[in-house]
Amino acid sequence: MTETENTDPNLLRFGWEEWVALPDLGLPALRAKVDTGARTSALHAFDIETFGPASAPKVRFTIHPVPGREDLVIPCSARIVDRRVVTSSNGESESRYVIASTLRVGEESWRVELTLTDRSSMASRMLLGREALKDHITIVATDRFQQPKLSYDVYNTARVRQAAPNRALRVAVLSREDNYSTRRLVEEGEARGHSVEVIDTTRCYMAINALNPEIHYDGKRLPRYDAVIPRIGASVTNYGTAVVRQFETIGTYCLNGSDGISSSRDKLFAHQLMARHKIGMPNTAFAASPKDTDSLMRLVGTAPMIVKLLESTQGKGVVLAETKKAAQSVIDAFRGLKANFLVQDFVKESAGEDIRCLVVGGKVVAAMKRTGAEGDFRSNLHRGGSATVVKISKQERDAAVRAAKAFRLNLAGVDLLRSESGPKVLEVNSSPGLEGIETATKKNIAGLLYDHVESMARPTPVRRRIASED
Predict the structure, then answer these.
(1) How far, in Å, are 117, 232, 430 from residue 260 at the CA level?
(2) What tens digit of pLDDT does each residue of 299-347 get?
(3) Can you say whether residue 452 is alpha, beta or left, with left for phi > 0 and alpha for psi between -120 and 50 degrees?
């Protein structure tokens, strides 16, 4: 390597500044200063944070790739290969994390080590030291941009999202239970190289203010997460959605938003929302304390009919009244307990079966038919029901997708009945279990879920155009 001009055609010519790319980090264009006086290369980074197991630690950080453009933020992550004390040209020493990445210049690419440090005050977001320069590079110290020029305009296009690497994510699963679904989310996420932490929703507490809203857990502020997967139990819906709302406030991607979770849990509002979106469902009536039980029943139809507590979950608080007299007795009993309830038409042709469609990212990724235990009209698996894989019709698929969209849920278990007049949506579940549907369909549902999370947690391209630089 020399700092004088060389005419050898096999040598790469570098000026004192060059355009480079770091494709492993999702950075398609950077201006790098070439400094043969420095041993170690450096990359601009801020909000540097370690995560992952001690045996394979990783670091996540963010970068403003374009000087002066603090609105353009690219999140990155990489495996930590070392931690090194670096002394700058002004004599200051700093302990830095070291990562490895592919460096691409023109048609050439090779692996380099980079230390992470704040270079916001520097004109170049990257410095190339001696260790990163190959032996067949010659330096033209009096010139710049000897290699093909790139442009910051690339950050304005969708190509930034499409070309973003499958970087390691830090994911929080909000769950109070050590059940199959929670374990699968941890297992699948870690198998993909992500760091997945299970957070007990009720142990979170929040600092709510305009300048620096935070979420604390067991006496410490929670770190920044790339994504949150809420598994909010019905008994803690109000507090759980408040925690999700706080994550939304600080800008974390939440698989299901607080509004969607709240809407799906409020059975009365859920039916009103489906009615607003013209989604087929059984005839339903509601009253807090009707004086005329017969009038309420006539709104639904004739017996048999379903009487359902608004707070019912997993089939609990759901009663089949096979005769008019039985329906009157159940309604009077619920009214005497001052309980809120719905009365619904019983879809006889469903014969104790329903279909659970799992919708992820606006697509039905799996479906199963659930059949109730012998003598039970309820098909819930928690009550001894069984599940088998089922092929659904286009009409049923459309109904499931429209229902999930109405609640703005990226993950939804949509339960529907097959009736003579078409599919009838019974319920939209914002925290559907994974065990039954993975067992029945033999599909890796957790994997499909992470496919969606990974696509949404990638950097979003900035739409405002940036003038290209020489």
Answers:
(1) 40, 12, 7
(2) 887 778 888 877 656 556 788 888 888 887 887 787 777 777 788 888 7
(3) alpha
| Whether residues 67 and 122 fall in one domain | yes
Bridge partners, 99 (sequence order): 80, 114
Residues 41 and 142 in one domain: yes
What per-residue confidence (pLDDT) applies to 390?
Answer: 93
Asked whether residue 378 is domain-assigned, the answer is: no
Is a pLDDT exceeding 80 seen at residue 204? yes
The closest of 31, 13, 217 to 123, measured between CA atoms, is: 31
Q: Tell me, yes or no, whether 124 and 222 share the same domain.
A: no
For residues 212-223, average pLDDT: 88
Other beta carbons within 10 Å of 467: 7
Same domain, 158 and 232: no
Do you find a cis peptide bond into 304, omega within 30 degrees of 0?
yes
On the CB side of 29, CA atoms within 13 Å amount to: 18
Residue for token pair 């050898």: 8
CATH number of the domain encompassing residue 226: 3.40.50.20
Cβ contact 430:409 at 8 Å: yes
Give the CA distances from residue 105 to residues 58, 167, 248, 407, in Å, rounded to whole numbers and listed in that order. Answer: 26, 22, 39, 47
Residue tagged 């005769």 (tokens): 323
**Strand ranges across the sheet with 284-286:** 284-286, 341-345, 305-309, 318-321
What CA–CA distance (Å, rounded) separates 272 from 102?
54
Tell me how crowded residue 465 is: count the other CB atoms within 10 A of its CB.
10
